[in-house]
Amino acid sequence: MRIAVTGSIATDHLMTFPGRFADQFVADQLHTVSLSFLVDQLDVRRGGVGANIAFGMGQLGTRPVLVGAAGFDFDEYRAWLDRNGVDTDSVRISETLHTARFVCTTDADHNQIGSFYTGAMSEARQIELKTVADRVGGLDLVLIGADDPEAMLRHTEECRSRSIPFAADFSQQIARMEGEEIRILLDGATYLFSNEYEKGLIESKTGWTDAEILGKVGHRVTTLGAQGVRIEQDGAEPIVVGTPEEERKADPTGVGDAFRAGFLSGLAWGVPLERAAQVGCMLATLVIETVGTQEYQLRRAHFMERFTKAYGDEAAAEVQTHLG
Predict the structure, then answer these.
(1) Active-site hit among 87, 148, 169, 257
(2) pTM of whole model > 0.90?
(3) What angle, rounded to 10 degrees, do the helices at 149-161 and 179-186 form?
(4) How many C-beta atoms surround the C-beta of residue 17 within 10 A?
(5) Is 134 a catalytic residue?
(6) Which DSSP string corresponds to 108-142?
(7) How many angstroms separate the first and last alpha carbons of the chain?
(8) Alpha-carbon distance 130 to 236, whole Å?
(9) What is the chain's mean pLDDT, rounded?
(10) Which of 193, 232, 238, 273 is deepest in the core (most CB within 10 A)?
């Protein structure tokens, strides 16, 4: 099963200021703020939902096709993804713009000042999925993740017109989208991904009830945080999968992306939906135990040991066949 993952590609530049922002502001001079903070720590991390999901699928050996736009500074990031099993040949490289970037400074009270530069991400709307499909010999599923909104709409419409199954995954972009855009993006999706809060927001913005949305998509996949995930299909009993026991909680960033990577890999293997969700929950657990969205290591023996403990021998035997 050939899966393309569309979505943002970005880097995070995270800095730590040892003082307090509040001590640096003068109340009657806020209209002329001019400040520079001397930071004592800088972490540069690879990110972007498209790249995070593709990385996780690469770890599981399913060789996803990453579709998105990056800048002329993408060479090192591309090499990293290539080494980790991701097909990056369909990433559009801007000739003039940098890769999207989030720059954030956190103070001693955990207050943050940040900026997001979209950069090359705005060129994702120029990517045609037919070109991608022709290069790899066809696409069986396209995940349409958070990206340039115009790109998300174009990819969705192209999937419909070319009869390519697609999964709708609005993620961060749902906050800025209008109801009409959301209705366009989810109608006819084989899978609709969201967390529980986003689920309610989708219903509120579209004006459609839960039942109406279930009638417009093949499967509704709702992540429930520590409670796991629920998969619903019109006319069928929901499938609910719990999460494995955590060894520690280090950083929740990227956990949803990891779930999607595991779930999509399960689909690529052809295992049942419940099993695919179990793989997603196991991969998400590895990410929450690691600082950074692509810093975890998937050691297969360790993965299978914990998977077996969480879901049993029968489930593990089925996954082991594909994981190798």
Answers:
(1) 257
(2) yes
(3) 40
(4) 19
(5) no
(6) TTS-EEEEEE-GGGGGGGG--HHHHHHHHT--SEE
(7) 17
(8) 34
(9) 93
(10) 193
